Amino acid sequence: MPLASVLRLILLASIWGGSFLFMRLTANSLGPAVLIEGRVLAAALCLLLISLFLRRQLRFTSHIKHYFIIGAFNTALPFLMFAYAAQTLNASTLAILNSTAPLFAALIASLWQKERLKVKAGLGLFIGMVGVTVLVGQQALALGEQGIWAIIACLFAAAMYGFSANYTKVAPAVAPFENAHGSMWAAVIVVLPLLPFMPIRDPITVPISLSVLTLGIVCTGFAYLLYFKLVKDDGPASALSVTFLVPLFGILWGRLFLGEEIGINTLLGALLVITGTILVTGFSFKRLLAKGG
């Protein structure tokens, strides 16, 4: 892999790992709906400005059903679930649970696409689920019912990402940039009706405003562009490797900026989840590095 791609990969993982830090900082003050509406609106406006600069017109009504499916299941609903969980769980746990998405994608593919689950993939699913148990078991006991619901929300969000990954196999052919742009506006519309039911709890301060803008512009809009650039230049395997790096940055940022404790259950759980994901996806770092250096 070219050095430029490696640097983009690390940058993208660090940005997405940081998104859980910003959600942790803002979720309790803003509530899930206001936080995510601000995030997707900022991202949508960012992508709109880029589309105007590139002179790329978004024909939203041409693929409106597709945009709403992606906007709901790949953006709005999982973002809301993670924002809800961020009120209780630490950034490290959020990032690791997010990385279970490929495990759910494989399971859903076996049920929906009738893809036969290989022995290696089945082992990966088992190891990944053991990793989740190791990671959250102690926290579930410590946090009680609220913690259990937060963990379920994260796993539900990861399952929606898994559904979206399978949906893209049968979805209409839409350019990556338009996919990101159109689905973001759809997400804005999906979240909007929830605002009256999840009001803001605390005054909006400058740090909170900056956190939401960073979540939207950097962690969503700019990150999408980085991601699609990576897919275009180096293929899906490179994009997939981000999944294994995001938890590492989630743990790092949580420790550096929030002072989160890194327990043995966090490290062991992350290792098992990442190992399970590698087995399920058949990913090979050796093949990745050998490709197009």
From TrEMBL:
Family: Belongs to the EamA transporter family.
Keywords of this entry: Membrane, Transmembrane, Transmembrane helix
Localization (cell): Membrane
Phylogenetic classification of the source organism: Bacteria, Pseudomonadati, Pseudomonadota, Gammaproteobacteria, Alteromonadales
The keyword Membrane appears for this protein: yes
Official protein name in the record: Membrane protein
Taxonomy, superkingdom: Bacteria
TM stretches of this protein: 33-54, 66-85, 91-111, 123-141, 147-168, 180-198, 204-227, 239-258, 264-285
InterPro entries the record matches: AA-Vitamin_Transporters, EamA_dom, EmrE-like
